[in-house]
Description:
With 504 residues, the protein is of the alpha/beta class.
Amino acid sequence: MREIKKVHLTAICGMGMGTLAGLLKSAGYEVTGSDENVYPPMSTQLQSLGIDIMTGYSPDNLTHHPDLVIVGNTCKESNPEVQAAFAMGLNIMSFPQALAEYFIQDRIAMVVTGTHGKTTTTSLTAWVLAHASLDPSFFIGGIAKNFNSSFHQGAGRHIVIEGDEYNTAFFNKVPKFTHYRPTMGLINSLEFDHGDIYPTLEHIKTAFRGFVKQIPTHGFLAVCTDFPAARDVMHDARCTLETYGMNGDAKWTARDLVASEDGTTYTLVCGREEMGTFFIPMCGRHNVQNALGATVLCVQAGLSLEQIRQGLATFGGVRRRQDVRGIVDNVVVIDDFAHHPTKVRETVKGLKSRYPTRRLWAIFEPRTASSRRDFFQKDYINSFLDADRVVVADVFHPEQIEPGRLFNSPQLVEDLLEAGKDACFLPTADDIVTLFRRELQAGDVVLVMSNGAFDGILDKTVGMLEERLKSRPHPVQPLTLSVDGVLSLNGGSRVKAVEVRKAV
């Protein structure tokens, strides 16, 4: 293979592609890229790294003749830039192939998989290892706040990778994690998803069985047994196997969960032995599951429970995962990536446990390939039952969905109303912000769930709240004279009455 110096990524702003671009840049390659959808947080990360992003796909983006073109899995064969790359005879790879070739190599690959929870669990694992000074490399499908990055090329022996089951590329239709050479693997959840490429749950299980069989006999696998499908595939393991979860028969579990606005405290149990009290600065049963998965992997990597306890307690979270984007006039605005019905349900339930006395708004945009289709039409009803108010937006680009398969947002609202929930259908982000302007109250919590930009709804909401607060008239506050000769301004600042007379 000829020497690679210049690398171009087509569809660079996808989370996986953008993360790989950052790794390549940090390794000294000349990196360029193109995309149609450019928005934070990946666009800002790439810009901060000095990576040029070309808007739109065109053969002109390849006139600098890159040595390697990496094609994202959102690209179709008809993409004009991809067609030009093939016509020019350029070296072409998918990003999982490139990640394995240039970065995994002979490192100890800790590959975190599952239908949901991958990003948080990968971030937790990477941070606990880093906090213990092991300096791992990592590749995450989100931006971990402790690192302010989705990637790192460390000096340690471990590389922690988020292993996605989605297709690699149109020319390489296998799960991404097929390429990741796992020494240590984790299955954090396993349910039906990605109905556009997996017709049934059995097809997904087949993909995960392939992942399990990739782990060598000297390797290690951790499985969350809260999911029956995960139990089914774990029996194909040829390596050491350990289980975790919130059920009674897992080896590693958690008891006595206590939620607060700061996070969740729980008792860690291994076998039947209590291993002490742990804390994570996140809420929700699903995040305790994620922490258990990270704990099992890090124990296997040689860390002590005290090292793990300290790492978990100092975890900063992941952008777009219960990510507080603003607090204005005591209204908390939270961004989350949740889209699968189970993840939506656990996210809503977790935030309600964190803010039990506040009114919780759940805003949902069907935007992923699965959520835009009718696979989960009825399943979503139970996902919002812990919310006080629910707003469902229109499906993102409904014209892209094949006839007869489109998710029906108004129907979901009708079903929620029938279930006794306060719900409404508002097609656009601007419609929703208009509702917020009228009805948001101090103390409310707004949870926005989308895997995309959602037309800037988060910034629009925070901006609207700031404008509303500034425009609010400030009434003259009464002065109260106490018996000790001190004036109190509406229960606030206290000054001697003589000082007020002098000022007057």
